[in-house]
Amino acid sequence: MVSQSGMANPRIFGSVVHGDDVEGSDLDLLVDPAAGTSLLDLARLQVAIEAAIGVKVDLRTPSFLPEGFRGSVLSEAEPV
What we know:
Strand content: 25-35%
CATH architecture: 2-Layer Sandwich
Radius of gyration: 12 Å
């Protein structure tokens, strides 16, 4: 399913999934962008999510994950 923002398949990863997040931790989110999604679209979505939930968000797409840990992030990511 693709949302109005052109993003699909939202997932969380990182410290929240590991259970070691603390006060002030950011929320690591992974989304699959629709064709034609720009970096500006991603930035707008990140700002909107941060405003809605009051937590710093690190919004990534699979292609923007460093190759060194892309596989582990993709395997641990949990659907929202």
